[in-house]
Amino acid sequence: MRMSVVIFAVFVAALLLVRFWHLDADFPNHSFWSFEGGKYSDEGWYLNAAMNSVLMGHWYLPGDFAPAVVVPAWPLLMAGVFHITGVSVVAARATEAVFSIIALFLGYTLFRRYSSTLPSACFVLIVAGSACAYAYSRLALLERPIEALMFICLWLSCTIRTNSRLRPALLGLSIAILLLIKTTGGFLLPSILYPIWFRYRNDRRQLFRTLIVAGTVAGGLLIAYVVFFASHYPADIATFIGANEARLNWFDSSRQSLRTLYRGTWADPVLWPLACVAMLASAWIRTLWSNVLWGVCVLWVLGYFAFIVYHYNGPTHYFTMFVYPIAMISILFVVEILQFSGRAGWIMIAIVIASFSWNIWKVSEFTFHPEYSMRRAADQILQIVDANPGSHRLIIGHGANETTLYNGIPSIDTWLGYAGTGRKMEIYQPGWVLVWGDESVPDVGPTRRLEPVLNVPAFDDEVRGHLSLFQVKESAPPNSAVH
Questions:
Q1: pLDDT along the chain (483 residues), means of 10
Q2: 332 in helix, strand or coil?
Q3: Cβ atoms of 402 and 436 closer than 8 Å
């Protein structure tokens, strides 16, 4: 038994440690998640304030996209990291990988609280070996910090004691931080608060007392943040809301619901349909609801499903938030089915093993066959900019913040931000323009012209899979007529 535990621990540790290997490699090209847009832009967008604070001496550039006004927690943390390490894609992604391991540890402690040793070990193995979890633990997005804070919130929610004030207050603090990492955390509140309702559903006085304390702390902190800080940047708030505008009508929501139901396989092509069947079956297998963790996971899935439908065009990384709850749901369901039908239970176990084998194969493929197209492209951009010190060392382009992560050249966005491209050109006088794929080249005005200096492949998309760099130069004045 002791040797098997050692082998298990070493195997899990190896699966987690490979997340730190060649962190500057491309997000897996030609993979199950090739539609991912975060690799082109989102990493840089949500870290631009942190990078600006190091590279330019101040976090805020008026008129540029400033998501840190609304969701400051992640850029604030990474500003501290970058001031120690310098702006680095490796540092950013290593921090993300650390959060993925913290989330797994916290998820295990929560699952172990409501299950036995073997199912808990299976949970750790499934998540540690998940190809989706592996790929996205190496992309510096907001989802892994959200998962870690989600489990902190759930742990506090599940361990609140009668007449306690400290843990409800800490829960409120954690909820506030969760929402300041990403506002979509609001769709997870039913899952977070479910254990409190589950425990005190027959004691309304204690239920409301606990919710009032947590809500007062969370609401007070968020209101204070808005009043004393965010309210000073109304144009940036409006830009952020506009960039995440929802499409709510019967036709679009119905179509997106069906699309999300299918795309849930991005989290896991086997566990997602198994978890969906399990959630439907729980309408008849009522004993599943006797475990508070079942309700937590079901509400987690339904809450984030509702968010993706609300957002309408959810990118691939949104679906990574399903990995933990569907793993828990699948295991709890298999354990329950084994009590009724051994044959059906073992068939499900075989399916889960097949899924795990596929995931391990994909993880090994990504680990041992890295590609570095974005690294090479960013390095070439750096060489060209360094070789032209006469041009202002600032790049403007939609998603140009992503190249900043790799090469440390400051950048601003063309499309996003309350100021238009022309206004940004006038204010910041960038020396370089960057264009992804077939995106239109921005208009730099009548007094400037763009000279193409580089076209280099990056990533695997047939349309967006190359970067074009232009040098901004002054236009020659028109010849004056001779009279």
A1: 85 95 92 81 93 95 95 97 96 97 97 94 96 95 96 96 90 97 95 96 93 97 96 94 72 84 93 96 94 97 93 83 97 91 86 92 94 95 95 92 95 91 92 88 83 91 84 73 45
A2: helix
A3: no
Q: To which residue do tokens 């840190």 refer?
A: 68
- How many angstroms separate the Cα of 72 from the Cα of each of 91, 179, 245, 370, 419? 18, 10, 20, 32, 21
* C-alpha span between 236 and 65 (Å, rounded): 7
What is each CA distance from 85 to 94, 95, 405, in whole angstroms? Answer: 11, 11, 12
Amino acid of residue 306: A
* Nearest alpha-carbon partner for 374 in 399, 410, 411, 394: 399
How far apart (Å, rounded) are the C-alpha atoms in residues 181 and 130? 24
Handedness of CA 58, 374, 144, 22 (dihedral sign): negative
What stretches of 20-116 show up as alpha helix (H) in DSSP? 42-45, 48-55, 73-85, 89-113
| 16-19, Cβ contacts within 8 angstroms, sequence gap of 24 or more | 16/100, 16/101, 16/104, 16/128, 18/134, 18/363, 18/367, 19/97, 19/100, 19/101, 19/134, 19/137, 19/138
The pTM score is 0.93
Q: CA angle, 315 as apex, 333 and 147 as ends, to 5°? A: 50
395 DSSP β-pair partners: 411, 432
